[in-house]
Amino acid sequence: MKTMLASIIALMVLVSCTQAPISGIDYFSGKDNMPPKLIKAETSAADQVVLSFSEPVVSVGKPSCASSVQSRENLLIISLFSKLDTAQSLRLCGRVKDRSGNTLGYEITVYGMNSRIPGILINEFTTVSTPSNPSRTELLVTEEGNTAGLCLYDGTPQSWEKRVVLDAWDVKAGDFIVIWWTARLPDNVAPRSGNVINIACGKDEKLPSYSGVLCLARSPGSTAAILDAAVWAKASGSAYEGLGNKANLERASYLQRQGQWLGAVSAQSAIDSEKASATKPFYRTGKDTNTKADWCLGKAGSLSFGRPNP
Ligand SMILES: [Ca+2]
Ligand SMILES: [Ca+2]
């Protein structure tokens, strides 16, 4: 679903300068001695970043890239000297303190706002990979926009093995983007041809063959909103609720909490990968209900990357 709000965030390296007991209350003075926590960072305009904290804060000094910093209760509104292009990244370092004087240093990456996120879905993918049929993921554009900064994960924004950040392409409904999990595109595949964009991830990789999580997010930040996701596993699997390993279990749980993959966090709710092969694609059959009912495993030889699904 297209929205006009910010793209965002990144992971935070937070450094507290206060050693504090777990409760946060000093029982002798009754004083708060816990530092504030950074909850979220958002680009709210091309030249403005808003940081949200767990309690009211003021800035200690000013980040070097900031022309001004304002406090508004739990928010810190940072105006930048220059505008950030769509999906351009910026390291932002600074320090805040709460009303009791506890301070927190932050060092984060923020991304320029993409205000034209397209409607886009994961439409087809293969996990088993051979030299002649490497692992690929097809995205289908459902509503026009620009793909700057969209990020496809083997995993989730919080926990991933590899990812691909998309360039700034203007796209329209019916366009396809095919991500090849390979070092480079095959010689006979053009980067752009008609309504199809092909890109290689830059390394010879593949998706996990029989259990894994794919996720498309609106920016490379760790708390970025998810646009679409898919979870696959062998229906006969048993370890970690049939999802194969702890990372998959945690990633599928994250998608469930985000409302992006519904049902129990288990193989029973995942797309069945039992018969997956390099020429049998998982493909979307219709609308997006965030369940395995949206997906089918195709017949051998039925790959349709860059074309409508069967
Ligand atoms: Ca979905
Ligand atoms: Ca297709």
Give a summary of the structure in a few sentences:
By secondary structure, the chain is mainly beta. The chain is 4% helix and 38% strand.
Structural notes for this entry:
This protein has one helix and 22 strands. It has 310 residues and is mainly beta. The strands form five sheets. It has a seven-stranded mixed β-sheet with strand order 16-17-15-10-9-21-22, with no helix packed on it. A five-stranded mixed β-sheet has the order 13-12-18-19-20, covered by helices on one side. Strands 1-8-7-4 form a four-stranded antiparallel β-sheet, with no helix packed on it. The relative contact order is 0.14. Residues 1-23 have low confidence and may be disordered. Residues 228-229, 260, 288, 290 line the site of one calcium ion (CA).
